[in-house]
Amino acid sequence: METLEKIRKTYSDYVLEHGRQPPSVYQFAKKLKIPEVEFYNYYASFDAIEADIWLAFFQEARQTVEADTVYQTYSVREKLLAFYYTWVEVLKSQRSFVTYSYNRLREESGTARADMNPVLRARRGTVSRSRTLDPFKDAFFDFARDLLAEGRESREVEPRPFVTDRYSDGLWVQTLYILDFWIRDVSKNFEKTDTAIEKAVNTAFDLIGRSPLDSLFDLAKFIYQNR
């Protein structure tokens, strides 16, 4: 664990000081004062280090909220809000690295149009195409599926044919939107990001929760079955 942390810390320091990844694993291992072959015992590439760091951000935020006894009493909507607020706080502690990595992934994936809607920008442009975020994405999907299953039990989430299985995808797009918004946020203490989180989550649950249309569908179904 000490070597893993040393590799991540040294890598983070290097990219922030130089604005790019190290030129080679050989030179990076030399900086760490370990044989190059030992580096590969932990990571296959520099992108793998970044992937691990992004995953660690998510895991820290999830573990923090789930360790709070009050969190267990929250509604599913409140749990997702708590996670996002905590996740942003975790990211804030390493904002320089997050900004560097996010922009690097965007550049590698192709720059989105400057006038693109922020939701579409988060979805199409860019980091969503990067495999560096795959471990984070997989872990988030597990988290989202757990929340959605709990939401179906509490009736906060309405199951709908052909759509229910896509709810997790929608929450992932929402996560990228929040990340993109926070990266660009210049408000004091990122106050606008807090507002964006609240509005995004409330809108999401308004969409996946029960609506008057669901009641109308149930009535139509009942009439059809009992005609």
Which overall shape is indicated by the principal axes computed on the Cα atoms?
elongated
Taking all residues together, what is the mean pLDDT?
Answer: 87
Proportion of strand residues? under 5%
Q: What kind of sheet is the major sheet?
A: none
Tell me the number of strands: 0
Q: Count of helical segments?
A: 11
Through-space gap between termini: 67 Å
* Spans where pLDDT lies below 50 across 5 or more residues: 111-116, 212-219
What percent of residues adopt helix (DSSP H or I)? over 70%
- The helix-strand sequence is HHHHHHHHHHH
Decide which structural class fits the backbone: mainly alpha
Radius of gyration: 21 Å
What are its keywords?
227 residues; 0% strand
What is the element layout, followed by pairings?
Elements: H1 2-18, H2 25-32, H3 36-39, H4 46-66, H5 76-92, H6 95-109, H7 118-124, H8 134-154, H9 167-184, H10 191-208, H11 212-225
Protein name: Tetracyclin repressor-like C-terminal domain-containing protein
Domain Tetracyclin repressor-like C-terminal: 127-223
Pfam families: TetR_C_23
Structure in words:
There is one protein chain. With 227 residues, the protein is mainly α. The chain contains 11 helices and no strands. Helix 4 (46-66) packs across helix 5 (76-92) and helix 5 packs antiparallel against helix 8 (134-154). It starts with a helix and ends with a helix. Mean pLDDT is 87; it is low at 111-116 and 212-219. This is Tetracyclin repressor-like C-terminal domain-containing protein. Residues 127-223 form the Tetracyclin repressor-like C-terminal domain. It comes from Nibrella saemangeumensis.
